[in-house]
Amino acid sequence: LQDEETRKDYDYMLDHPEEYYRHYYHYYSRRLAPKVDVRIVILVTVCAISVFQFFSWWSSYNEAINYLATVPKYRIQATEIARQQGLLNKTKEKGKNRRSKEEIREEEEEIIKDIIKNKIDIKGGYQKPKIYDILLFQILLAPFYLCKYIVWYCWWIYCFTIKGQEYGVEEKLYIIRRYMKMSQSQFDSLEDHQKETFLERQLWIRENYEVYKREQEEELKKKMAMDPRWKRYRRWMKNEGPGRLTFIDD
């Protein structure tokens, strides 16, 4: 009875002895309640999610590197760079230091992958993971990002709304990305020639973007109309359709 909340329950029981089941409920709910601090549970959960995120991203990044190592275009370039740097022209070992062909092949494969990692900038969902992108650091750095965004937004209003300055390339691409409702990583994964097309067509202007959007929708409809899979699907929807009920007379 040293606990204040337990003492209140005890006093209530003395004043209302007829509420038998309520007393038992309060007693066992307090007795069986977890003693772990909720803040610790949240911290452990966030850390577990962050660790899973980091290793999952590393796995995706390694899968991308392994795939690029099989693409002839990148493999030939990486092999040529390795030869120029003398990484594949090592003299063969003799005697006890002599290695098997399998070991030499594995070493050459690792050299090619390392060159691809250093020479190719992978963007999007398969880019090299950064520790600051995981959930734990995103939560810790949230106040900093918020202040940074407020400063940037005030700068944007002052430069382009109040002073009426012309947009730069980065500002134009930012507006286009917002119109397309794409994340930064998704937009970065686009090819450079696509971004150049966006700038040539002046898609940062709303009217131009609406025209471009309608063109893309029409092109997509044409592709779907010519796709055999979509033809089969439309034929099935017309003849059968989902959830169709039929009644058969006996």
TrEMBL record:
InterPro entries: DNAJC25-like (IPR044632). One of its GO terms (biological process) is protein folding. It comes from Spheniscus mendiculus. PANTHER family: DNAJ HOMOLOG SUBFAMILY C MEMBER 25 (PTHR44176). One of its GO terms (cellular component) is endoplasmic reticulum membrane. The keyword rRNA-binding does not apply. Keywords: Chaperone, Membrane, Transmembrane, Transmembrane helix. It is found in: Membrane. The keyword Transmembrane applies. This is DnaJ subfamily C member 25. The chain crosses the membrane at residues 40-58, 135-158. Its main location: membrane.
